[in-house]
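U., I forgot to send this yesterday:
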Amino acid sequence: MTNPPQQPWWVIYREPNPAQIDVVAVELPPGDNAAHDKRCAELQEAGQHAYIITAPDADTAGDIALRVWSEELVASTRRRAAANAYVAANNRTR
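Result:
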């Protein structure tokens, strides 16, 4: 049995707070340098980011990006502290 072909995907996301990620879209990367630069500018203007994930399909790419984000959160003491502080502050207000 052969594996499905792998291709790069842009998983577009935003972080509304230090403890949360929202995947906005999963799309194929722009085709040329000008389109790439334009899309990067659009993402920056919208306060969004992108993971470039190689995967067989968009759903798998999105799942991988969520796992990567979670692993980065746990691995970074600074990010983890910010997330913990955010959660603690918001639990007090409820």
